[in-house]
TrEMBL record:
It comes from Pyrococcus kukulkanii. The lineage of its organism: Archaea, Methanobacteriati, Methanobacteriota, Thermococci, Thermococcales. The keyword Iron-sulfur applies. Pfam families: Radical_SAM (PF04055). Residues 27-181 form the Radical SAM core domain. Keywords: Iron, Iron-sulfur, Metal-binding. This is Radical SAM protein.
Amino acid sequence: MKIIKRKVKTLYTRSRIPGIEWSVNQYVGCQFACKYCYAKEIVRREEPWSSWVEVKVNAPDLARKRVKGTILMSSVSDPYQPIEAKLKLTRSVLRFMDKRNELMILTKSPLVVRDVSILKLFPTVEVGLTVNSFEGKEKKLFEPLTPIQRARINALKALHEEGIKNYAFISPIIPGITDVEAIIRETRDFVNWYFLEFLNLKKAGEEFRKNLEEEFPESYAVLTDYDKFTSYLRSIKDVLKRLNVRVEGIETHK
Ligand code: SF4
């Protein structure tokens, strides 16, 4: 893994994600190396995705700025990827950030719980853990290096117990594999809200598409056939209605 240390001019960048005004990426690139990750399409470097991580060494100094609107940490990396345990860059960014800023964190790692004492200093903070029920064969194929589901669910519970608002980002939804209903049933007692995102098949890359088609042809068929997808989406909406939980959005990438 190549670590590239860099000084940058600005940390807060304008976001095009609906409902998010700013994004903060103190790291660019990600050691979790999810096979379907579409951040690689946004960042575009010659070296293969996840063979490098860029570290913005002066990010804590730049974090002091006061910005208006919701900030997402992070959009093209995971703020709690393995290197963070040692570098504590995300922790420093949080320490120095203007606490009036409205912060939304998204990670796949329970390491975020380490920073609860700093997160409590923000009047407006919400912490999301990505959950998708990938285990066994699917986990090996799709995201072999990420923390296991149980650890992420426990992190959501720990955040709730510490009084930090949280959300479960159910992503990527792959029909027949991601069990949306089971995830919600298991977490609804300690999760504030949900956001659902289907697999972005177009941006997942040729290799991932081929693997999915070969290994899970039925899931692939639902994602690529308009009628099958529409009926599957309807079934998910029925589940959400039945379970009566707060859902902030469903991204289908269609
Ligand atoms: S954790 Fe997120 S940013 Fe990192 S590789 Fe996976 S999908 Fe991409």
